[in-house]
Amino acid sequence: MSTAVGYAAVAGQVVVVGAGAPVLTGWMRQVRARLEGRAGAGVLQPWRDARKLLRKEPVTPIGTGPAFRAAPALLVASTAVVVALVPLLSTDTPVSGHADLILVVALIALGTLALALAGLDTGTAFGGMGASREMTVASLVEPTLLLSVFALSIPAGTTNLPAIVSGAVHEPARLASPAGLLAVAALAVAVLAETGRIPVDNPSTHLELTMIHEAMVLEYAGPDLALVELGAQMRLTLLLGLLSSLFVPWGIATGTSWAALALALVLFAVKVALLGAVLAAAEVFWAKVRLFRVPELLAGSFLLALLAVTASYFLSGTS
Amino acid sequence: MREIYQTTSDTLPEKAQQLLDEGHRLALVAAHIDETGPRVVYLFTSGPPDTRVELHIRLDPDRPEVPTLAHLSFAAGRFEREMRDLFGIVPLEHPLPRRLVRHFHWPRGWYPMLPDAGPPPAFGEQEGPYPFLEVEGDGVYEIPVGPVHAGLIEPGHFRFSVVGETILKLKARLWFVHKGVEQLFQGRTIAAGLPLAERISGDTAVGHSLAYCLAVEEATGMQVPAEAQRARAMLLELERIHNHVADLGMLCNDVGHSILNAQAQRVREQLLRLNRQITGHRLLRGGVTPGGAALHALPDPAVLEAIGKDVREITDLALGHSTVQDRLTGTAILSTAAAQEIGCLGYVARASGIADDTRIAHPFTPYDHPAFEVPVQNGGDVLARFLVRAEEIDASLALVAHFADGLPAPKALLAPTPAPGAGPRTGVGLVEGWRGTIATRVELAADDTLTRVKPVDPSFFNWPALPVALADTIVPDFPLTNKSFNLSYAGNDL
Description:
The structure holds 2 protein chains of 2 kinds. By secondary structure, chain A is mainly alpha-helical. The longest helix of chain A is centred in the first third of the chain and has 33 residues. The radius of gyration of chain A is 19 Å and the shape is globular. Chain B contains 17 helices and 15 strands. The radius of gyration of chain B is 22 Å and the shape is globular. The two termini of chain B are about 30 Å apart. The longest helix of chain B has 29 residues. Classes of the chains: A mainly alpha, B alpha+beta. At the A-B interface, helix 5 of A face strand 7, helix 7 and helix 9 of B. Chain A: It is an enzyme of class 1 (oxidoreductase). Chain A: GO terms for molecular function: oxidoreductase activity. Chain A: Keywords: Membrane, Oxidoreductase, Transmembrane, Transmembrane helix. Chain A: InterPro entries: ComplexI_Subunit1, NADH_UbQ_OxRdtase_su1/FPO.
């Protein structure tokens, strides 16, 4: 194994997701604005917002403790670790042996939990309300995330993500199976809920009482808010990237050549941008469901994931 | 056409009871400080046929007290609380003798509407505690929202008592925008009162200025030309359309379906530009003047038709969307009985099955368009309020085309100036503004200056219905419900 290429791939994943996440968010907003007949603020607006926020003085509410202060950094850090682990550009990196499915889902949950604790720490009604709603959603989403990827791990015989992805590259028939299709549907819904998109949450609303994710982070300002936003944008990019790696894995570098890595980078950007555009376009046609309908939706996606696992078990058992 | 009865504290409740039993509604209560002492005017209306009855009562200057009518009419109880806060007139045995307008930092014993009140003193010592009702029990918690909100809306504080996500009780504390409008009217000339009336609630420029002008015209005995009345009726409908279109869009936005909002706001912008062509002002200010109306241009029927088609397409798309439909249906139901007891007006009442409309009960010009019908829905939920608006837009577009037909433009249509001091010196204007019935009562001095103007926005009647409709609704549906009522803070708190 050429460690230089491997390390470059890991660094590349973190840098591309870190720098590209705000651009992806800007891109999705722009697609949505154009589809709605608006001019839009431009693809770079999230970066401009971040620059504005970073120039402000840090303010923390009186009475908040370490949970509030640590959460933004913890969110970004845990997301960055997951970004380094999962196979976005290459399946053959120095850390790919640790990229276990359960670890990845646990790290994603850690970021969610940190924000929920921070929301509770503010002691405001909104923080608590948002945290309670976020935990309700998370408790339904995390099992779906686990199960849907688990369905793919059965044919691969391992819960190691790079192994699952490289297996799929070499044997595409696994993805076209009923189990693969069920799993992609379940994972897509879970990603929507985890990243707080319509129909579960509305990221662009100003109505405090309807918020889930935004309600938890209402008290953040300045650089802390910039971190929280970056964390949320990175998670969106990460999950869309993971979705594309698991179900459209072609182009991901499985070897150790520089050329393959460069190609993987370009294809990753194209795949995520395309997926983001599809999601933004879909959001134009959707509306936010009633809060009490969210569990029904997520239970449905959990059921799909369960079916995927069952199908995967029986189909691979007979073959 | 207005009957006036003098009453005493003994005969007032009896007479009021009789009027309410005959099907009148209490439209307005206005206190006055005459040289001989305080006087209170109760205006009761019913129609058709257009009936207006006033009960007057003179009070002892040393002990300004009135018998309460709160047990007869819910609205009366609120008018009395407002009157006590602003004039110091005490409603005896009021069942809910709490403050309404006065916030706790208002100086003790200072009543701004008294002639000797002077300029407002500095905020003083709190006049005792001003608590919210606390709901106790397992898992009950409070969510305080406002008075400053995240969106561009007016200030109001909402206190939710909640279990899980279900609202047990909502208390709305308003009155953060007391501007002293009634006081500002006093001593102005009739012409100087008009800009103030247009600004009582910014989105109801025509409704409030028309109610003011009708009242002034009655007080001075002005005979407004029939064509001017038709022009006014047209402007009133134009105001209804642009507000309803904006509301339909924002209701879609509140359920996260923002493309329809973008389209609705596009249509609204067309309407605002049309308004500027017609009156020179996007919100139709300057169109209605005392004694007449002034038009710069007339709306093109083809443009109106195109707008109607666009709006119908937007509402069809909204109602055809299963998630939007699901969010609107059954949310925050206001029962007909509750709406009736509270005395709701406008589209809020019509969405709860009450077919009241001032255009039919108290028309200032014949509404003789054959297709004019008052749309009524019986659901009482957000969907019903959405549908009533959509149907009203259609009806209003037809009325605009009908009234515009044959009007001369550009032209100011004015009544001949009456002799100074002519007329009965008091007048009442009743107008179906876009939110509902606006009642304005005017009294004039001998030199034609305004001695007292009391405007009542329909929001004053409708605000108490919001918490009633919200009982057992979930917290995330509050913004949607609030938008479906879309009540005015500025018009409520003069």
